[in-house]
Amino acid sequence: MVHDLYQEIILDHSKRPRNHHSMDDANRQAEGYNPLCGDKLKLYLRIEDDIVRDASFVGAGCAISTSSASLMTESIKGKTRAEALKLLEKFHELLTTDVSVSQELGKLVVFCGVRDYPARVKCATLAWHTLKNALDGANDPASTE
Ligand code: ZN
After folding, report:
1. Which of 26, 81, 86, 107 gives 20 to 30 Å between its CA and that of 50?
2. Domain assignment of residue 98, given as a range
3. What is the distance in A from the centroid of ligand 1 to the CA of 63?
């Protein structure tokens, strides 16, 4: 039952991704690529006083990668850099370990089912790899490989 709801949220975000546009006043950008699936995205951030004021992305990918980027941009807005990195860590734990679902993740728990499909984990984490590069100010494209 709960997983049907999760599926629905993922589907909704893949069909109508939030924050899916480029950003003219972004002060951080990074690109990500998942060669395994062909997912590509470009992430834009506007960071002021160490807080993510705005986040958006463009790109094309499968339903999992698109919905993950959509939910990620929603989740990190208003967070400090450290909080965003903490969330990244928790999200990675959710997808790769058996730890009980943390409430800090909020809506991001919808991806817990991806854990059972190792190939799709890279689709779900692509946006987050890209986020890390954007926060670190790295210029090299993020790759899940
Ligand atoms: Zn994918």
Report:
1. 107
2. 2-138
3. 7
